[in-house]
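Quick one:
INPUT:
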């Protein structure tokens, strides 16, 4: 399959505009995982032309990176992938997480990640969350040094504001930003999106299906088990859940009527058409969950489509809420 792609100056491969997000396959906060399924999913993504694989050390406390490393090592797949991971979240033995972007922590994490990922370089290395305890200039300079050493090819940040990115760019190169973005969570349209577009940054939009709400698979009776983060996600609790499911039902009908597409493909296309340097990170856990991605290409949304979406949201979501609940503690 031929997918749309983004050219990046320091990355030899065109970057697919759909990426595989691997938080869920790490198991932590998603009710566990199956390693064999996860490996097959990653390899199936590459076979479909999805070469952007996004992970992080904290996803499963190293487990997601290990799975990604295993999947890419088999059959020499590493050089077919654009590998993105993150830095700056530390955890304790009992699973508590906190931010730490100190140079010493970054130096430790890069070596740990390279080992888990079975690679000699990371294509896109991103600071996972801003750390108020460490000056941005200090963190930026450390990643700039790693780039000069050849351990990373491009530098990114995740969950950073325009002001924080502006400080970063005074001290080091910046190539990408990874914010939450989907039909229901649109805060970046007020700040991060215009900043990134005006500065030529690639946007790796995470949560384009809003943790499954926009997949068309979530029902009012759906039960989430174990440590699945949707058990604490305000969107999945009443009275909000009914509002969001009502919106999904109407969006599903809109996608079918206007484009003959499923809601999942419509939601992905909605993100991609916000700019030509936006990639959508799709968190599949089974190979077959990736198959509908082909439906997201070969067509575009019109201004009328975007206006219709806005009208549906205004009429259905009376108590909107963002993704703020996912932010880790500052320290």
């Amino acid at each position: 399959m031929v997918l749309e792609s983004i050219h990046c100056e320091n990355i030899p491969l065109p970057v697919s505009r759909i990426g595989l997000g691997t938080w869920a396959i790490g198991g932590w906060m998603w009710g566990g995982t199956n390693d064999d399924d996860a490996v097959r999913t990653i390899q199936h993504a590459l076979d479909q032309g999805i070469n952007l694989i996004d992970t992080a050390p904290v996803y499963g406390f190293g487990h997601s990176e290990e799975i990604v490393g295993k999947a890419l090592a088999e059959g020499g797949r590493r050089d077919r992938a654009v590998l993105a991971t993150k830095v700056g979240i530390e955890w304790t033995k009992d699973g508590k997480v906190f931010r730490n972007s100190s140079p010493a922590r970054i130096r430790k994490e890069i070596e740990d990640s390279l080992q888990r990922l079975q690679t000699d370089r990371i294509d896109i290395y991103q600071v996972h969350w801003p750390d108020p305890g460490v000056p941005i200039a200090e963190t930026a300079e450390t990643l700039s040094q790693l780039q000069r050493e050849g351990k990373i090819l491009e530098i990114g940040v995740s969950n950073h504001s325009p002001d924080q990115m502006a400080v970063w760019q005074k001290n080091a190169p910046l190539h990408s930003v990874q914010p939450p973005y989907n039909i229901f969570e649109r805060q970046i349209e007020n700040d991060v999106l215009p900043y990134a577009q005006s500065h030529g940054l690639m946007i790796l939009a995470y949560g384009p299906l809003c943790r499954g709400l926009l997949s068309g698979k979530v029902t009012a009776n759906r039960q989430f088990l174990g440590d699945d983060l949707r058990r604490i996600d305000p969107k999945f609790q009443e009275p909000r859940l009914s509002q969001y499911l009502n919106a999904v039902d109407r969006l599903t009908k809109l996608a079918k009527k206007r484009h003959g597409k499923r809601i999942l493909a419509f939601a992905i296309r909605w993100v991609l058409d916000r700019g030509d340097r936006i990639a959508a990170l799709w968190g599949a856990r089974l190979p077959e969950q990736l198959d509908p991605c082909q439906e997201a290409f070969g067509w575009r949304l019109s201004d009328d489509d975007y206006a219709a979406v806005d009208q549906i949201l205004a009429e259905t979501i009376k108590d909107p809420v963002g993704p703020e609940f996912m932010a880790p503690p500052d320290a």
